[in-house]
Amino acid sequence: MARCLQWLASSFVLLLCIALPLKPVSAAWICDGDRLTAEALSIGREAIGVTAAPLPNSAAGTVPGDGVLLHWRGVTLQLPRTNNAGTPSYTDGRWWWQVEDPLHPDFRERRGSVISYACEAEE
To answer: What is the span of the domain harbouring residue 80?
Structure first.
């Protein structure tokens, strides 16, 4: 019986370790007059698993395969992380998101030409 309880406790701890990192971290801005929220998707490290050496092209706690969910104007955009050097950026080819300056993130849309949306930190 004690062995069974120990196994259940170990399984519960393992489940918590797996589930807790999935909770998104969210931030909010006002972009072009409307509220935009961003949630980090840390799925790259989970897909790759544990590695002995650091992952190449890791930046600001993100790895290839990670992404971001943007909620803006009733639309949810799921943008994968790019492999560009520097501050992590996210794009699906149409939308672009990068938070180099937390007070004024870079949010753009490509529709023939590039439209830049002015963003400011939500107060």
So the answer is: 23-121
